[in-house]
Amino acid sequence: MFDMNPLNIADAMIQHGVMLFVAGTLGFIIGYISRQRLIEQLEGDLASTDRELDDCQRTPIMPLPTGIDEASVLNRIRARASELNFDRIGRAEASEADDLKDIVGVGPFLERKLHAIGIYTFRQVANFTKEDIDKVNEIIEFFPGRIERDNWVGQATELDKRK
């Protein structure tokens, strides 16, 4: 009654081998088909990206408008310097100027813009309030929020202490 062991059948090992082969073959075929679909999709995406790149490279580069030179920008900025509260920030002369380029985020042109509105020293930058930061950002036509992200006030405070 308990002699129903499938391994006692003479060709059981052959049947197990055939089933293993069929399962492996089906797995290979299914994997191969899905991989081919993925390859076709990626090739389509690549072709689309290549077309977009070609279109971008064929687009002519528009030159910057001429007539906007540094002097006119600085004059425009200088005309708005009176909007700042120098009683709170502090006043300084060009002869007292610190190298504001030591502040991360301030380059040569930005330093000239700051000088144009009367900001020459680290102490002045360190005295900025939120209102001053917003006003300076607006006057010097700088990226909104950049002064705070680069932490000019903190950097200027540290640089002023080192002087």
What do you see in this structure?
This protein is mostly helical and 163 residues long. It contains eight helices and no strands. It has helices at 12-58, 70-78, 86-89, 108-116, 122-126, 130-139, 146-149, 152-162. α2 (70-78) packs parallel to α4. The longest helix is centred in the first third of the chain and has 47 residues, at 12-58. The protein is elongated and about 105 Å long. The model has no long low-confidence stretch (mean pLDDT 87).
Q: Which shape, going by the Cα principal axes?
A: elongated
Order of helices and strands: HHHHHHHH
Helicity level, as a percent range? Answer: 55-70%
Computed Rg: 36 Å
- Helical region count? 8
Notable characteristics:
163 residues, mainly alpha, elongated
Summarize the helices and strands and which ones pair or pack.
Layout: H1 12-58, H2 70-78, H3 86-89, H4 108-116, H5 122-126, H6 130-139, H7 146-149, H8 152-162
Summary, kept brief:
The protein is mainly alpha-helical and about 160 residues long.
